[in-house]
Amino acid sequence: MSAMETAPAAEGRTPLMTLAGVSQVFDTKAGPIHAVNQVDLSINPGEVLCLVGESGSGKTTAARMAAGLAKPTNGQVDFDGTDIWSMNRRDFSTFRRSVQYVHQDPYASLNPTRTVQQTLTAPLLKHGVVKGGKAAAARAAELLTKVDLTPPENFLTKYPHQLSGGQRQRASVARALTLDPKIIIADESTSMLDVSIRISVLAMLGRLRDDLGVGFLFITHDLAIAKYFGWHGKTAVMYLGRIVEFGPTPKIINAPTHPYTRALIDAIPEPDPDLTKTKGLGSLRSLEIPSLAHLPPGCSFHPRCPLFEGGLCDGVVPELVEIRSGQSAACHVVARDGADVLRPDPPAT
Amino acid sequence: MVTTTSPSAPRAVRGGQGKPLLSVRDFNVEYRTGAGTTVQAVRGVDLDLYPGESLALVGESGCGKTTFGLGLLRLLPRLGHASGKVTFNRGDGTEIDVLGLDGRDLRQFRWRDAAMVFQGAMNAFNPVLKIRAHMHDTMRAHTKATRKEIEDRAAELLRLVRLEPARVMDCYPHELSGGMRQRVLIAMSLLLEPEVLILDEPTTALDILTQRSIVDVLHEVRERLGFSMIFISHDLSLAAELADRVATMYAGRIVETGGVRDMFYKPRHPYTLGLIKAVPPIVGDLPDLESIPGGPPSLAALPPGCKFNPRCKYATEECKAEDPPLVPVSDQPGDGHEVACIHYKEVHLDRPAPNNELGTAS
Ligand SMILES: Nc1ncnc2c1ncn2[C@@H]1O[C@H](COP(=O)(O)OP(=O)(O)O)[C@@H](O)[C@H]1O
Ligand SMILES: Nc1ncnc2c1ncn2[C@@H]1O[C@H](COP(=O)(O)OP(=O)(O)O)[C@@H](O)[C@H]1O
Ligand code: SF4
Ligand SMILES: [Mg+2]
Ligand SMILES: [Mg+2]
């Protein structure tokens, strides 16, 4: 089967970026591990694709391949229809400018010895986006306004350590914007921020999406945040290196079709004392996450899955197949019986 | 500096039955930050914890939650100093003045009366000792229990937190997953049957399904053993899930407290309201969220009056003049619902409770 065939449909539009059957294998002391295993994803201009999963599921590894920071062991990453690893240097450099990576830790992208102004003007001048220091400074101020660091004069002369966590993350987004990216890869970019600051940073990112048409690969372990930021986009759920469910975000959250997604949604407490009483662990068979070095055969969720059927689930790896319109899951039982088998457990009494 | 509350009027968190287990009055913690300079990380906190109660302490980072917990158990770092009055009422009727304890009495208080599970489960262990050694050391330091008694007690508690004693007793801390380590810590903290357990961010940094298992374990052990709990969390959902009562902390003070349903459905402090409006729920439609502008103030430069006034959309000139005391909510009284805001009568959450017929907190 060609990986391209299963790439989530782009609904008529040409996706800006496609990951087709990409894998990343790391050689570790415990043997080779498939941190990312045959993943297909595509991102359309101005759209949000959320990649959610628990820590270690392979989100960052997938993101680094999408950003061209790591070369896949297998599979292909296309940008604007061209395989990025067959591009000439000039095209690859254009690609790298078009796809910007924003880390969880803003310190990783902000040089501690540079002021915000220096951080922003350096790439502007180096890549000839503007000519001359004055124009660069003006553009830097404009970028700070875009990320709500206003008035810009208050921030241009600051060093990263003089900013609060939220301000630092805004500055690193401003830096990502210097080269007019078409896609921003935001890897847990708001995870270290307090709730209230997180919402205002997300609102700012939402404006970049809506006003500048920037597409997002939005990575988070927090499904509530994926829901909030990616409501009008798509969500892919990763488990142990594979995508186990994919679909429109509201469907993933409110009508999941994979037992793992169902378990996650059911487990997360709600900020509401009555509502949270309906939450629980359901009938998960085990709490332990298998090691990537010793993946269970067949569906790697089978040792924990409440729908497990011996002979069916522990044989071959299930493929991601459409369960409902636009929504696909990689589960043998759901593929056979439909998503109704996932009806939520009655709340524990 | 403007004083916070007048110590003459005791305003404690009410709600439980009988005598409070832990009673805190005008509690303050200072940190020395340089030669002759200090910051006040906790300011004038009054609080009662009743037997069997579960109290959540919520607020953004830097609000003083951890400092408060450490201060209660006399575990502050060397540069921290607690003052005020903390009374622990033992089941046998003895009243203990916690801030006056020292030596053996203090060690005894710390494990037998109250215990703490610290944030970051790894640092709480000695990496070269197996779990068995941790259990034995803890018990031997405080009791005359025999080897067999210790083994039995440890096994009983490990099973209670859903761990197989045979599997974990001979493990080194690094051989356990984060969730297992956290459960071992909960079991260890309960070895000497404390009446109060303080947990600092008990699920932070754990995976979703592991977090849920810790939450379920806490529900279970509390039901079985009946201790009281103070847990510290920046995660409001965890408070909704685990607390009977909630106290919101801001810049070192408790600015609102009440039953969990009052706090989530009828918050009356603009800060509690702001926190609630900023948390996205999981189920349901796209939530309408709002953020609180700015961040908590620096302790070294607290604003005059209500410490929240620079971020508050209800603020008026009066709010800059006076730091309001914690007073009972009078226009819509809840069970022990108290708020420190001049304009609390104007503060309402325009989001209905999903289940109004349940009434207010019981
Ligand atoms: N450079 C590397 N060498 C070896 N293993 C790695 C490397 N980078 C990541 N891994 C492993 O790959 C898996 C996926 O990691 P990661 O992509 O960081 O997951 P996530 O971002 O979802 O937490 C983890 O088990 C991690 O330990
Ligand atoms: N050892 C210390 N010395 C000086 N200040 C401290 C120390 N520990 C904490 N603080 C300060 O006390 C305040 C409260 O901190 P903390 O209790 O950790 O808050 P929280 O747990 O709510 O995040 C913060 O402003 C913090 O910087
Ligand atoms: S007292 Fe004033 S500033 Fe403080 S929370 Fe109430 S309205 Fe806001
Ligand atoms: Mg990651
Ligand atoms: Mg803390």
Describe it:
The complex is a heterodimer of chains A (349) and B (362). Chain A folds into two domains: 17-112 and 181-242, Rossmann fold, CATH 3.40.50; 255-342, no CATH class. Residues 1-10 of chain A have low confidence and may be disordered. Chain A has twelve helices and twelve strands. In chain A, strand 4 and strand 5 form a beta hairpin. In chain A, helix 4 (116-126) packs across helix 5 (133-146) and helix 5 (133-146) packs across helix 7. Chain A is an alpha/beta fold and 349 residues long. In chain A, the strands form two sheets. Chain A has an eight-stranded mixed β-sheet with strand order 6-7-8-3-9-10-12-11, sandwiched between helices. Chain B folds into two domains: 22-243, Rossmann fold (3-Layer(aba) Sandwich), CATH 3.40.50; 255-346, no CATH class. Chain B contains eleven helices and twelve strands. Chain B has helices at 65-72, 103-113, 131-142, 147-160, 165-168, 178-189, 208-225, 236-242, 260-265, 270-277, 317-321, and strands at 22-34, 37-49, 54-58, 80-89, 95-97, 114-117, 196-200, 228-233, 245-250, 253-259, 327-328, 338-339. In chain B, helix 3 packs across helix 4 and helix 4 (147-160) packs across helix 6 (178-189). Classes of the chains: A alpha/beta (349), B alpha/beta (362). The interface between A and B is large, with 42 and 47 residues. Bound molecules: adenosine-5'-diphosphate (2 copies), iron/sulfur cluster and magnesium ion (2 copies). The site of one magnesium ion has 2 residues of chain B, from helix 1.
